[in-house]
Automatic annotation (TrEMBL):
It comes from Nocardioides marmorisolisilvae. Residues 120-461 form the Leucine-binding protein domain. Belongs to the leucine-binding protein family. InterPro entries: Leu-bd, Peripla_BP_I. Residues 81-95 have a biased composition (Gly residues). Residues 48-104 are annotated as: Disordered. Gene3D superfamilies: 3.40.50.2300. Keywords: Signal. This is ABC transporter substrate-binding protein.
Length: 480
């Protein structure tokens, strides 16, 4: 039995998607509300295995199963190839005659530094691979490796250097995160695409050594305030997007709302704070109720909502608990106008076991649903190269933002050209705003670290997730 990690410092209302679920996963040894096999299925066919902190190193085209796309493969959508083929960029540590980086600044004056040789530029990724839920954020490493594969195999170069990726396991533990970042500080130019439930551990280490840390998503206050750390999806201050309560109000007027949450750590904090924020936006909650993690009988909560004529239900929990509530609602013939869940319900572990009981559920999200990949070249590109590094793996929310953060790193590095070093990259990141990774997700305020206010909605019809109120994002501001 391992010591239970602390949830101190987890962003409260913003990152419901994963923090609340992690609160359930890590609530105690043997007390997880999520079967470890669930995460393993979601992140099937990981890149690596083995013990120790550093998992593996990826240089050039990568795969967990044989060769992959060769040089000369078709590039992605217009504007997606941020590096492009580049000639040799000087044989020394600098060179005034170095060629310009395609799409970027001149490489004149480029100097090798930590993690950079004449041929390669090393980046690291530290994500939760082992721990209470094996493979929790394997998707983040798969997606980072997928972008490295895409960049290298299509001739991409940063002033003549290919990317080399070092993979680290943060073990779903703050201490593991700190150890990984200590190694990354010594070996890599930057850390990219990382995702860890307890990422506070490496925050001080990253800032102290000055390594740029361009994460998929940050999960703790400590990481959010780290001066060298940024995220493709920032966490930001204590705020919540207005698009969600506005959507509900269009259907119920905001009357007789219910907020349920599993009464553990971040889940409880999220439930209370979200209800407070949305009440300021015009929602009227008649039920704001925590459910004990050991409670498997949801009928009393459903009966309470039925007696109070609840018109909309929100629930912060895991997929298994979403299903349990839905089934209890059906058994008690309770049918509110709106059941609204966060993006963690956007998976087959909710729709499969839920069956007819979950039909009609709404989900809010800030990225293009994977069902719409044919309409979005960037999503298609992510899915294509994901199969090159992890055949059979499914695209995920976490993976998409890891892909996005890797593209962002490359874009900024290429733009700096010969001026690229750790300090200049960090300074450049501070100016990034409205980042969408070629339209794969809603605009993100990376440099200012403020959460985005643009969200859209989908609904499960029993066979597929379908868009509601169109495919456009609703950018309705934030409530603090």
């Amino acid at each position: 039995m391992h010591p239970r990690p602390t949830l101190r410092g987890v962003h409260a209302p913003v990152l419901v998607t994963f923090v609340a679920s992690l609160a359930l996963v890590l609530a105690g040894c043997g007390g997880s509300a999520i079967d470890p096999k669930t995460a393993a299925r979601a992140n099937n066919l990981g890149l690596t295995s083995g013990n120790g902190q550093q998992v593996t190193s990826v240089n050039g085209p990568v795969s967990s199963n044989g060769p992959v796309v060769s040089d000369g493969a078709t590039n992605g959508p217009s504007g997606s190839s941020t590096g492009g083929p580049g000639g040799p960029s000087g044989q020394g540590t600098s060179g005034p005659g170095a060629p310009a980086a395609p799409g970027g600044a001149s490489c004149a004056g480029f100097k090798n530094s930590k993690g950079i040789t004449n041929d390669t530029l090393r980046i690291g990724n530290s994500s939760d691979i082992s721990g209470p839920v094996p493979g929790l954020f394997t998707a983040a490493q798969q997606a980072t490796a997928a972008y490295v594969n895409y960049f290298n195999s299509t001739g991409g170069r940063i002033c003549g250097r290919k990317l080399q990726l070092d993979l680290y396991d943060s073990h779903t533990d703050a201490g593991g995160d700190q150890i990984a970042y200590a190694k990354g500080c010594e070996s890599d130019f930057a850390m990219v695409g990382s995702m860890s439930a307890f990422d506070s551990g490496g925050a001080k280490t990253a800032e102290s050594c000055g390594i740029p840390d361009i994460r998929a998503i940050s999960t703790t206050v400590e990481r959010g305030t780290c001066k060298t750390c940024f995220s493709a999806q920032p966490a930001g201050p204590d705020a919540f997007q207005n698009a969600v309560p506005d959507f509900i109000k269009r259907r119920t007027g905001g009357k007789n709302a219910a907020m349920l949450y599993i009464n553990v750590g971040a889940s409880a904090a999220n439930g209370k704070s979200q209800a407070q924020h949305m009440a300021k936006r015009g929602m009227h909650y008649v039920v704001n109720q925590g459910i004990d993690i050991t409670d498997f009988n949801y009928s009393p909560y459903v009966q309470q909502m039925k007696e109070k004529n609840v018109q909309s239900v929100q629930f912060i929990a895991s997929s298994a608990q979403f299903v349990r509530l839905a089934q209890a609602m059906v058994s008690l013939d309770f049918h509110p106008k709106v059941v609204m869940l966060d993006p963690s319900a956007y998976n087959s572990d909710f729709t499969g076991p839920g069956g007819s009981a979950v039909v009609g559920t709404y989900v809010f999200m800030n990225f293009v649903p994977f069902e719409e990949a044919s309409r979005n070249p960037e999503i298609t590109l992510y899915e294509r190269y994901l199969q090159q590094v992890a055949p059979g793996a499914k695209p995920t929310f976490f993976g998409l933002f890891a892909w996005s953060s890797t593209r962002l790193f490359v874009q900024q590095a290429v733009k700096l050209g010969g001026k690229l070093n750790r300090a200049s990259l960090i300074a450049s990141m501070r100016g990034v705003d409205n980042w969408t990774s070629n339209g794969a997700h809603a605009p993100q305020h990376v440099g200012s670290k403020k959460i985005g206010d643009c969200w859209r909605f989908i609904q499960w019809n029993g066979k597929a997730w379908v868009p509601v109120e169109g495919r456009a994002y609703h950018c309705d501001g934030l409530t603090y």
